[in-house]
C-alpha cells in the first residue's frame, strides 16, 4: 500500500520540530551511520535526544493512526535532513519495519527538487502531510537543488514477530495514552511571546474570564484572540483531541499579581456556573498557562496523577496539563521574590483552557463574555512558533498524607503550608536557575 494523508501535523508542530532538529544538528555530530538494512542518512535518532523524544512522544497517536494497522513497535524513528552541504539525495532502497510513515516537515518553498521516487512515480508532500507505504517498496530520495528538506520518518512494526533485537526503538506506546493527565512544557518563541506580552500589558484591564467559541475562530487582527486560537489548534493537533465544533471553544483570562503576598490557592478548573447551579463538576479538556513576565518568581504547582510539576515563571513559557488536575500558586511557594532588573513589577499570566466537547455555562448575566480588546493591529501577527522545553526531575520523598481527598465543590484539597514545607525541606538544588521541576513519582498521592 501507498497513500498520502494531508495535515497530519500542524505548521507550528513542523516548524517547532525543525527548529529543535536544527539546534541539535548544529551542536552535535550527527549519526550518519548505516547498518545492515538501512541506508546511511544525515539523520537524528529520536531516542538519542531527550528533547526530540519529548516533542515527538505526544504526537505519536495522531501519526500512527494512519498506519492502517495497529503499530506494535518501532524499528526506527528519526529526523532526516537533506541539504546542499551534506546529504542531497538517497539511493533506491527499502526501509526497515513493516510500514513507513514519512512526514514532510519543511514547507515546499524551503527547497527545490526533492520528493520520494517509487518505481511507479514521484510523490512530493506538502508540509505536515504523511506519506505512508509498505516498507518493502523500493524508493529513493530525489536530489534537492537548493534549500533544506526535513522529514520525520517512522519505521513501524505491525506484528511482534518482526521485532529486531538491533535497531528497535523503545518509544513506549503506552506513554502516549492518557496523555491528558500529565503536563507538557513549551517555549513560545519570540516574536509571538514578546508581541503577546506587550499586547497583554496594553489590553489587560481586569481579571475577566472570556469565552472564544470555536465556530467564531478566524484570522483575527487581534493578537490575543489569534494566540488563543493558535493554542487551541496546536494542542488539538498534537494530542489528536476530538472536537465538537458546536460547543468547543477556549475560555481565557489574564492573571496579574503585583504583590508577593497575592496568590492563588490550590483548586480545580471547572465549569463554575454548572457547579453553582447544578452541583456538577465538569473540567476543561486541557488547561494551559502562558507566562508573560518573570519578575515575580512565584511558581505554579500542578499535581499530576503520578508526578507533580513545579513551574517557575519565564516569559514565553507555556505549560499544558490535564484539565482535571489540582493546581495553584500559593504565595508560600515563593522561593525568590523579584528578579533583578525585571522589566515589569508584576507576575502576568494568560490562561487558556480548551473545552473540546463541553461548553461552559453562561455567566450570571446569562451571556458569554466575548473579548473586545484592541482590534486594530499595528504590527503584523507572526504565526505561533512553539517548541518543547526541558525540565529537571527531582525526587522528593515526602509525607504521603499531604494530598487529601478531591473536594466535591472544587475546594482546596491540599494544605499549601504543608506542601510547600515538604518541598522546601526535600529539594536541594538551585531553584533560581531552573524553569520547571517534575517532582517524584506519586509523591503527593
Ligand atoms: Fe526510505
Ligand atoms: Fe486554575
Outline the structure in words:
This protein is of the alpha+beta class and 445 residues long. The chain folds into 2 domains: 175 residues, q2cbj1_9rhob like domain (Jelly Rolls, Sandwich); 261 residues, Jelly Rolls. Helix content is 17%, strand content 28%. It has 7 helices and 24 strands. Helix 7 links the parallel strand 23 and strand 24. The longest helix is centred in the N-terminal third of the chain and has 17 residues. The chain is elongated, with a radius of gyration of 23 Å. One fe (ii) ion binds next to loops.
Reported CATH architecture of the largest domain: Sandwich
Q: Show unreliable segments.
A: 31-39, 162-179, 395-413, 428-433, 441-445
CATH fold-type name of the largest domain: Jelly Rolls
Task: Tell me the radius of gyration.
Answer: 23 Å
User: What is the percentage of strand-forming residues?
Assistant: 25-35%
Helix segment count? 7
Tell me the number of structural domains.
Answer: 2
Q: Topology, please?
A:
Elements (H helix, E strand, L loop, with lengths): L1 E4 L5 H17 L15 E3 L4 H7 L3 H5 L8 E11 L6 E4 L5 E6 L6 E3 L2 E3 L2 E3 L6 E5 L4 E3 L2 E14 L25 E6 L3 H12 L6 E4 L9 H17 L9 E9 L6 E4 L4 H7 L7 E6 L8 E4 L4 E4 L5 E6 L3 E4 L17 E9 L30 E3 L3 E3 L21 H11 L9 E4 L6
Parallel strand pairs: 23-24
Antiparallel strand pairs: 1-9, 2-3, 3-11, 4-10, 5-9, 5-11, 6-11, 7-8, 7-10, 12-19, 12-22, 13-14, 14-21, 15-20, 16-19, 16-21, 17-18, 17-20, 18-24
The structure holds fe (ii) ion (2 copies).
One fe (ii) ion (FE2) binds next to loops.
Amino acid at each position: 500500500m501507498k497513500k498520502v494523508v494531508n495535515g497530519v501535523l500542524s505548521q507550528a508542530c513542523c516548524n517547532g520540530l525543525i527548529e529543535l532538529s536544527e539546534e541539535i544538528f548544529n551542536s552535535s555530530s550527527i549519526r550518519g551511520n548505516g547498518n545492515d538494512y538501512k541506508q546511511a542518512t544525515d539523520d537524528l535518532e529520536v531516542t538519542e535526544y531527550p528533547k526530540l523524544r519529548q516533542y515527538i512522544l505526544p504526537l505519536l497517536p495522531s501519526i500512527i493512526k494512519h498506519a492502517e494497522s495497529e503499530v506494535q513497535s518501532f524499528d526506527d524513528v528519526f529526523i532526516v535532513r537533506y541539504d546542499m552541504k551534506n546529504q542531497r539525495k538517497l539511493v533506491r532502497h527499502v526501509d526497515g519495519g513493516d510500514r513507513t510513515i514519512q512526514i514532510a516537515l519543511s514547507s515546499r518553498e524551503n527547497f527545490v527538487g526533492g520528493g520520494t521516487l517509487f518505481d511507479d512515480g514521484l510523490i512530493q508532500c506538502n508540509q505536515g502531510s504523511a506519506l505512508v507505504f509498505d516498507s518493502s517498496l523500493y524508493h529513493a530520495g530525489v536530489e534537492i537543488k537548493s534549500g533544506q528538506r526535513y522529514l520525520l520518518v517512522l519505521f513501524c512494526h505491525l506484528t511482534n514477530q518482526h521485532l529486531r533485537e538491533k535497531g528497535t526503538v523503545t518509544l513506549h506506546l503506552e506513554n502516549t495514552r492518557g496523555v491528558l493527565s500529565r503536563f507538557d512544557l513549551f517555549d513560545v518563541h519570540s516574536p509571538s511571546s514578546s508581541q503577546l506580552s506587550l499586547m497583554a500589558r496594553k489590553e489587560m484591564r481586569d481579571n475577566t474570564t472570556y469565552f472564544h467559541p470555536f465556530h467564531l475562530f478566524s484570522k483575527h487582527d487581534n493578537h490575543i484572540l489569534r494566540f488563543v486560537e493558535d493554542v487551541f489548534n496546536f494542542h488539538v493537533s498534537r494530542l489528536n483531541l476530538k472536537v465538537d465544533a458546536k460547543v468547543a471553544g477556549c475560555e481565557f483570562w489574564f492573571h496579574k499579581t503585583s504583590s508577593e503576598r497575592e496568590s492563588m490557592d490550590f483548586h480545580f478548573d471547572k465549569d463554575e456556573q454548572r457547579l453553582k447551579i447544578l452541583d456538577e463538576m465538569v473540567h476543561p479538556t486541557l488547561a494551559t498557562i502562558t507566562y508573560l513576565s518573570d519578575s515575580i518568581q512565584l511558581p505554579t504547582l500542578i499535581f499530576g496523577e503520578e508526578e507533580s510539576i513545579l513551574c517557575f515563571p519565564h516569559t514565553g513559557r507555556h505549560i499544558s496539563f490535564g484539565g482535571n488536575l489540582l493546581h495553584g500558586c500559593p504565595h508560600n511557594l515563593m522561593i525568590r521574590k523579584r528578579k533583578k532588573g525585571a522589566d515589569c513589577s508584576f507576575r502576568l499570566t494568560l490562561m487558556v483552557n480548551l473545552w473540546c466537547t463541553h461548553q461552559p455555562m453562561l455567566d450570571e448575566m446569562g451571556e458569554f463574555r466575548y473579548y473586545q480588546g484592541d482590534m486594530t493591529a499595528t504590527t503584523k501577527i507572526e504565526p505561533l512558533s512553539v517548541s518543547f522545553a526541558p525540565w529537571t526531575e527531582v525526587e522528593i520523598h515526602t509525607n504521603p498524607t499531604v494530598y487529601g481527598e478531591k473536594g466535591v465543590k472544587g475546594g482546596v484539597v491540599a494544605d499549601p503550608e504543608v506542601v510547600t514545607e515538604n518541598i522546601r525541606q526535600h529539594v536541594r538544588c538551585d531553584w533560581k536557575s531552573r524553569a520547571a521541576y517534575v517532582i517524584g513519582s506519586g509523591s503527593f498521592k
